[in-house]
Amino acid sequence: MRKRMYAAAVGVATLGALTLSTGGATGHGYTDSPISRQKLCANGSVTGCGAIQWEPQSVEGPKGFPASGPADGKICSAGLGQFNELNSPTKPGGGAWPTTKLTSGASQTFRWQFTARHRTTDFKYYVTKNGWNDSQPLTRAALDSAPFFTVPYNSQQPPATLEHTGRLPGGKSGHHVILAVWTIADTGNAFYACSDVTF
């Protein structure tokens, strides 16, 4: 009897672990070039980030941006409260988020790292408008309305690391945020990553 109860307990524990490991909380991908806020937290460049430091790949929210998707002010966290630190215009503890130096109008390679390689609709990249308010969390109104770079992916599955190269928008200077959106073909979600840059 005791052996049967032990076996049942192990079975339930294993099922629970499998359920957790296949759920949305385990996440699936992030950008590390230009480096995203979640990757800065994960690699220890920025500290005090909370849960995102262990789950940079988990910034997953509804797809359809900008018509739908995360609410304004919650875009960088994909609307997930446990990753709210990513929405702040300043890093945890204060001060500016580290930036990547880029040249307006130049060719740029964007790189994603994937822990689960979902079939993909596309990758889109948006950038903040000239004169945007960088003391406030990111909103749709702060972004240029159209993506400056789109990579169709035709429901294919990406490799574990994916790079693609496109042209940055011209006429940009100073601090901006690039929002990368990875839209999944076979779920209702997308993954979001905010990268602070200086043109």
Would you give an account of this structure?
This protein is of the alpha+beta class. It has one domain (27-198): Distorted Sandwich (Coagulation Factor XIII, Chain A, domain 1). Helix content is 14%, strand content 31%. It is built from two helices and nine strands; from the N terminus they run H-E-H-E-E-E-E-E-E-E-E. The chain has helices spanning 2-22, 37-42, and strands at residues 29-33, 60-62, 100-101, 107-114, 120-127, 149-156, 161-167, 175-184, 189-198. Strands 2, 3, 5, 6, 8 and 9 form a six-stranded mixed beta sheet that branches. The protein has a three-stranded antiparallel beta sheet with strand order 1-4-7, with no helix packed on it. Strand 8 and strand 9 (189-198) form a beta hairpin. The protein is globular and about 40 Å long. The N and C termini lie far apart (69 Å). The model is unreliable at 1-26 (pLDDT under 50). This is Lytic polysaccharide monooxygenase. GO terms for molecular function: monooxygenase activity. Keywords: Monooxygenase, Oxidoreductase, Signal. Residues 1-24 form the signal peptide. Residues 28-197 form the Chitin-binding type-4 domain.
CATH superfamily: chitin-binding protein cbp21
Q: How does the major sheet shape up?
A: 6 strands, mixed
Q: What structural category characterises the helix and strand content?
A: alpha+beta
Hey, roughly how much beta strand do the residues contain?
25-35%
The counted number of beta strands is 9
Organism: Streptomyces monticola
Keywords: Monooxygenase, Oxidoreductase, Signal
Protein name: Lytic polysaccharide monooxygenase
Pfam family, one: LPMO_10
